[in-house]
């Protein structure tokens, strides 16, 4: 079977699941949210990376159904946990540009009895200008419902400064490629420092992903970064891994 057909089958047969990775306050260590990350284990291929199957789902017209499954499952889990911080769901801008996206998100929140503020959408810009304008309209409506909006992968080709001007954002998420050498490299420090200032001057929370070492965390905190996500503060894992830790420090 082709990869695409296998993905379709997994979607229909409950073959996908979610992992969750904590987002953490750099000064207090408090839990600020969980990012939901989709996982697919195929019976023959083993674990297939979303970096591979998300683009495939987009091409094959499966991203609507896949995205809907992820959103519903993440909201279901947040409700089951009684999570007081938002659950963050990745959305491809292609999904957001669909006419009924706002309605579908609203219906999902209602289904699980969640407030808008309990959901964060991490948007990656892989869009034409026209799609971006459509997406911006939908996101403005969701923003009105209190849904948090984060611009994911900032600092890579996938997310640009011009997008900052077009979307009603709450958060800027700096890509991990920007901070791999931040503990040693003065130039990386200056670049990241400037991006943190940019976000803060726009009243955005700045979160850095891919933080793996205590040195990186210390430097980022000193540069004014409020939030981090990475292997240092918690690897992505199934919901059952986090359930015992929700009411204390991670
Ligand atoms: O979790 P991992 O590092 O394997 O994710 C790889 C890429 O897949 C990341 O860019 C991430 O944003 C994306 N991704 C993970 N889960 C989802 C999802 O549910 N929906 C979308 N659209 N992208 C996802
Ligand atoms: O692009 P996005 O932020 O959605 O992707 C998150 C991806 O980054 C996930 O696939 C997750 O598994 C991965 N990830 C999370 N923390 C770390 C980390 O500390 N180091 C590395 N290399 N990858 C990470
Ligand atoms: Mn993300
Ligand atoms: Na990213």
From TrEMBL:
Coiled-coil regions, chain positions: none
Top-level taxon in the UniProt lineage: Bacteria
Location of the EAL domain: 1-250
Protein name (database record): Diguanylate cyclase/phosphodiesterase with PAS/PAC sensor(S)
Organism annotation: Deinococcus daejeonensis
Residues of the full protein shown: 454 to 703 of 722
């Amino acid at each position: 079977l082709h990869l695409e057909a296998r993905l379709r089958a997994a979607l229909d047969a409950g073959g996908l699941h979610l992992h969750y990775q904590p987002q953490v306050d750099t000064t207090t260590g408090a839990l600020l949210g969980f990012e939901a990350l989709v996982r697919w284990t195929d019976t023959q291929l083993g674990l297939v990376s979303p970096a591979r199957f998300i683009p495939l789902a987009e091409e094959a017209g499966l991203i609507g159904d896949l995205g809907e499954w992820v959103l519903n499952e993440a909201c279901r889990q947040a409700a089951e946990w009684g999570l007081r911080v938002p659950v963050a769901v990745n959305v491809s801008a292609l999904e957001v540009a669909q006419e009924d996206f706002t309605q579908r998100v609203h219906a999902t929140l209602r289904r699980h009895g969640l407030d808008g503020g309990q959901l964060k959408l991490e948007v990656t810009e892989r869009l034409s200008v026209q799609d971006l304008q459509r997406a911006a309209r939908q996101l403005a409506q969701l923003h009105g419902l209190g849904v948090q909006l984060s611009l994911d992968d900032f600092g890579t080709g996938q997310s640009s400064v011009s997008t900052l001007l077009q979307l009603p954002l709450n958060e800027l998420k700096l890509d991990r490629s920007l901070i791999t050498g931040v503990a040693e490299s003065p130039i990386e420090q200056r670049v990241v420092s400037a991006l943190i200032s940019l976000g803060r001057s726009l009243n955005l929370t700045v979160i850095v992903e891919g933080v793996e070492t205590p040195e990186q965390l210390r430097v980022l905190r000193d540069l004014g970064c409020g939030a981090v996500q990475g292997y240092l503060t918690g690897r992505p894992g199934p919901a059952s891994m986090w359930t015992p830790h929700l009411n204390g420090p991670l």
